[in-house]
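Below is one such protein, fold included:
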Amino acid sequence: MQYEFPFQDALDKLNVLLSQNQFELLVPNTAVSSQQTSDIRLVYLMNDAVESFLVFKEAVLTGTYLKEYEGELEARLDESEGRYVLAVYQGETVCTLFFQNLTLEVHLYDYSGTGHFWVKGYEYLRQLEYRIAILRDKREYLGEEYCTEQEVKLSYLAEFPPLNYCSYPAVPDKYLVPSYDWWQVSDEAVEEMKCLGKEADDKSLLRWLKIYEFYPKRAVAKKIARMLHTSAHSTVVELIDHKLKLATAKFGNRVFDKDEERHINDLKKKAQKRKTELLQNGKHVEMLKEEPFVYAKDGIESKIHLMIWDEDTRNEWVEVETFE
């Protein structure tokens, strides 16, 4: 489209979704039953770090919108009689949105304490991989202005194969959608890991990072990946986790309705009781949460997880206990 619309930034984000064949509307009942104007949300980026939407302001939806449609999309945007018209073709079916403006709605959250245990083995590293991956999506889809300075630095670790999905994927292979080329490392990722290695005073890791910088091959990446799950290099892993906690603390937590909050608090009490027992027995324990979205129902139920470190002096192993 050559014409510059007044909501060009939001339109660019809409084009990103359409190019990925993504078009998930959250349509109020009134917009369907009475054809009254209302704000209609289009899901943009949804993960533990952010819930965001493109909002069609004062909109009316006509035609047939196929909520479960999965396939290629075509779209056309025009201006007519003082309002904008977006026609979206889902195969042979078309739905049309008439609206006055298109805006971006963003809700940011602290995701440093979230936990999803989809893949076994070195779960604590997989949690880091997951958090860094959704942080990179946040930076890429929303921009650095929605990230703290420390988040921007850490986000480049998503391009570091010894820690990303190449070595410690958080999701099973069939659900894996790489955000960066397999086994390719970025200069920014190496520089950030070098800074972390220096701060952790991990001389062995720094030597291997120097080798990796000049020989960025899979074999070297796998060597560094093996180093990261050993007790000898646990300080740098703990440092990444600590920095992520500090970087995201300003965003706050999701707030649910009274029933859900009561349920979550009950789970936390049970988990905290168990955590106290483990701590008294000399265990290192971290409490993590798994929770649904606030603004779009996703079928996820609230859970509390305990990651319990094993006493192995060579490798960092954890067991997971879940309260649901």
